Amino acid sequence: MTAAAGTVPRYHPARWARKRNPTLTVKSKAKNNYGTVILCCCFLAYFVMVGMVNSTSSLFIVPVSQTYGFSRAAFSVTISLTSLGSAIINIFYGKLYARFGIRRLMSFGFLASGVAFVLMSRAASLPVFYLGGLLASIGLGLNSNTSMALLINSWFTRRQGTLLGLISASSGLGGFVFSTLFAFLIANHGYQSAYICTAIILLVMVIPTVIIIREKEVPGEEGGQRIRSAMGEKGYFHGFWLLLKQRPVRFMLISTFILGLTVHSTLVASSAHMQINGISPVTSGIIYGGAYFSMGVFKVLMGYAHDRWGLKMAAITGVLGFVASAIVLIFVHNAVLGWA
């Protein structure tokens, strides 16, 4: 009698191998379970780093500027330095990854960001805030999509895009949770309390990162050494320059950069803009957090739209949604329009 599809025949060598060495199956299951642990750790890391550090930055513009008499534009340079610094780190991420490995990079990122927010909680001058912004950029750069993608690709061979979408959506959930929390803390205990809370969470995150994060071991290699060597080789920028020679690629990169800059700047400034137009700090913080929660949901929906109708339709839908929200934001003067 022939074996059913998907089963191992009675006298197949693999069946006898498992009987003679049952640890093979146990080890395989253990590795699969550890992949789930890595997924949860990535979700938590992105929830904290992007959802808390990046998404709540707008909430501090008004209270810090009013406390020390800074102009909002001058203090907003702190946020710009954080974004710029993380972008530069991502450009050289491959070199850093090849030299130090992903565990050290992520751990150092949380540590540097924690120190940054301790510094900003005590700061009273713009240069100190700027230094804090630069230190925070290290955490964002070293715990970016690149780190998450490397870990997911190391531990999973299927549904990698779906898993990365799930991790990315955690930033929206984190933005909702921490924006709501920090709006309450700032209104009732001052912006310093929110900075200290951020620092504590970031420093605590160093512990699970050091203990848990690691790449999957590949037979004959030492923890992804081949990938690290390829990313850190002498021709690191060679492929990038070749891509830039193609006109469609240049157009795509410029368009993506301008769109990302516009969307991110508008979103970051939205909470301060609502406060200036008469909406209370707590209410604007809750609305701001709701925007990030919606963003997390729509990241999943945009992934579905991409799979169903293609990249162009998904991109057009996203751009139209941003234009509509930006127009409403111009005329916002109450909570109803703020939620819209």
Main traits of this protein?
0% strand; 340 residues; single chain; Growth Hormone, Chain: A; mainly alpha
Kindly describe this structure.
The chain has one domain: MFS general substrate transporter like domains (Growth Hormone, Chain: A, Up-down Bundle). It contains 16 helices and no strands. Helix 9 runs antiparallel to helix 10. The radius of gyration is 23 Å and the shape is globular.
Provide a concise account of the structure shown:
The protein is an all-alpha fold. It is built from 16 helices and no strands.
What is this structure's SSE topology?
Blueprint lengths: L12 H8 L2 H32 L6 H8 L3 H20 L1 H8 L1 H21 L3 H17 L2 H11 L4 H30 L1 H22 L12 H7 L6 H7 L2 H30 L4 H29 L1 H20 L4 H5 L1
Helix pairs in contact: 2-8, 2-9, 2-10, 4-7, 5-11, 6-7, 6-10, 8-9, 9-10, 9-14, 13-14, 13-15, 14-15
Mean pLDDT: 76
How helix-rich are the residues, as a percent range? Answer: over 70%
If classified by CATH, what would the architecture be?
Up-down Bundle
Straight-line distance between termini? 65 Å
Query: What is the radius of gyration computed over CA atoms, rounded to a whole number of angstroms?
Result: 23 Å
Q: Any idea of the CATH topology?
A: Growth Hormone, Chain: A
Q: Low-confidence stretches at least 5 residues in length (pLDDT < 50)?
A: 11-29
- Structural domain count: 1
